[in-house]
Amino acid sequence: MGNLGASSALREHQLVAFWAPFLLLHLGGPDNIAAYELDDNKLWARQNLTLAGQALGAGYVLYKHISSGGEALFSLAAIFVSAVGFVKFSEKILTLRRASLSTIRDSARTETPANNCTFFLECEPPRRDTAQEEEFFKKHAHALFHVCKSAMVDSSVDDDDPNRISHHGSPARLLRGFKDQGMSYKWRLMEMELSLMYDILYTKAAMVHTLAGYCIRIASVLVVTASVLLFRFSGKAGYSRVDVAVTYALWDRLRRMVVSLHRIAYVTGIAGCFRLSRRWHGTMGQCSMLDMCTRRGTGKPTALSGMLGSSTSWTVEVPKKVKEQVVEHIGRIVKRKEINTLGVIRLNWRDSALKRRKRRKFNIKLARLHAEVQEAIVIWHIATDILLADQGKLIRTKEEETDVEAIKALSHYMMFLLLERPAMLPGLAQIKLRQRTEKTLAGKWKELSPAPSPNSASWIRSVMEFCGGGPNTDSRLQRREQLAKRLLERRPESDIRGVSSRVRFGIELARELVKWQSAKQDSLQILLDVWTDILVYTANRCSRESHAKQLSGGGELTTLIWLMAEHYHQASYCG
Question: Which residue range or ranges hold the DUF4220 domain (predicted)?
């Protein structure tokens, strides 16, 4: 573009003066995308250089066109588009600045909670009306959004300024009644608040829904429409047909960004009547260490299946039992004042669940009790998979079946975080811990199941299984059960370097759980309590920046749990 504007080719391609403003407008981006990563907001100041360079380039091309005697109507249309492009790009920079965590932190410290809430807040959600129910939770989320925004950037409660804690008005009333609401209400409210937080961090919502934002969009529609009409009725005798076609193609793209009915509906809020998907996806990632190791031992078919898109992880819907356990656990630790004034859980991951079992003499050595949370995930995950490998012997009632489903989901989810989302866990990423554990388990599986002969039939069967089957196919379940029985019968030998120590600890823990279950005690309840404790602990101890970054990829279950704990904590200050 710059080469064309600086050379004599501008005479042959006079429509370049119209293309340059299009490029400037395109850099402004659509309303539903402002940043792709959280770091884009941090680097908002660099966009000023981009704006200056692009604006000067477009202005230079336009100046060359006008000075060479370009047609007046065409020049006026190009000026209109340039003005819109400059304003839209400037708006994007302001959006990135307002979405940076430092700016949000400053605004959260100065603004008061939404006591000036002007809309009426119903106490109970409407029934059998999806649209009204969505609107109900949206209003409640807006009323309590100051809790989410403050928690995302700083402590949700400021002890130095007691006036920051509101005890009156609709938001305070909602907070006081938050703990008494049902599980479904709390879950839906957290989903809606995270959706609003995503809009603030990664879209232009913070600028769109202001008086200036509305004026910019109305003016953009009028100006772009006027520019295309001016171009349409200007003389095109001296223009190349190819250039004219390219210009109309660019304008069609511009129409989709600025003039489309979808954009108008988004700005005016009408789109909210038709879009009922402002919710978290409601799934949790899953990964099994035993499943990974039994697949790893099959050799080249595994690598080939990976090239074809197979993955070691999968997703499941969050079981209702998990939601109930989380809500109950958070309510219990807040009631016992196990959260300090900064909203951080006082006790370690093991204390809250296991201290309730001391009177029952559940024998667990200190090596397992005092492990770091990432080591604990590996140890308890191995023990859980070993115990549940033959789950048919454990399930006697419908309630136990529900417990087993929740335990498996929690165990596999925490392993998923350890392997694929290490930033969502407290502490440094333990890559060696994962590699050594996987190597030890894979070695045991290799001893149990020799590598198959490298024939075409075995390769095809393996690839079809890995790519077409799920984690609960009969063959994969059978292999996990075989490895679990092998580990339970023969634990790895102790070594000086402690490479296999976590596997040995997991096996010893599994044996304790098996003995406990054989004595008709509630080992399932112990596992459920421990995994819930670990889940809430890791969600609370994960950095706020990691929670914010993960929102760009759809968010995580731990982010929702962390936000729920913050609401419980804030509600405790409202009486």
Answer: 9-250
Q: Residue 113 contacts by C-beta under 8 Å, 6 or more apart in sequence?
A: 146, 164, 166, 169, 171, 172
Percent of the chain with pLDDT over 70: 73
Q: What average pLDDT does range 289-312 have in this prediction?
A: 62
Residue with tokens 């106490």: 123
317: β partners? 283
Burial of 471 (0-12, 13-18, 19+ CB in 10 A): middle
Q: Are 545 and 201 in contact (CB under 8 A)?
A: no
d(CA 64, CA 44): 31
Out of 7-11, 183-187, 263-267, 307-311, give the one with best mean pLDDT. 183-187
DSSP 283: E
Phi and psi angles of residue 284, each rounded to the nearest 5 degrees, phi first? -135, 135
pLDDT one-digit tens code per residue, 417-438: 999 999 999 987 778 888 888 8
| Mean pLDDT for the chain overall | 78
What dihedral do alpha carbons 84, 88, 89, 91 form, nearest 10°?
140
Residues 573, 68: Cα–Cα separation, whole Å: 70
- Contact by Cβ (8 Å): 89, 22: no
Q: Tokens 């590699």: give the residue.
A: 435
Give CA–CA dist 81/37, Å, rounded. Answer: 29
Dihedral sign for Cα atoms in the order 256, 257, 261, 262: positive
Q: Tell me the Cα Rg of the chain.
A: 30
DSSP tag of 483? H
Looking at residue 255, the DSSP 8-state letter turns out to be I
Instruction: Summarize the confidence of residues 91-111 as an average pLDDT.
Output: 87
What pTM was computed for the model? 0.85
Cα–Cα separations (whole angstroms), residue 343 to 170, 340, 424, 540? 23, 5, 17, 8
Tokens of 518: 């054989």
Sign of CA dihedral 274, 280, 282, 288: positive
Q: Write the pLDDT tens digit of every residue in 41-90.
A: 988 888 888 888 888 888 888 887 787 776 777 788 888 888 888 999 99
Which ranges constitute the DSSP H helices of 366-469?
Answer: 366-369, 373-388, 398-420, 431-448, 456-468
Query: What one-character DSSP code corresponds to residue 152?
Result: H
How high is the pLDDT of residue 170? 66
- Angstrom distance (rounded) from CA 204 to CA 480: 48
Q: What are the residues whose beta carbons fall under 8 Å from the beta carbon of 440, sequence distance 6 or more?
A: 492, 499, 500, 503
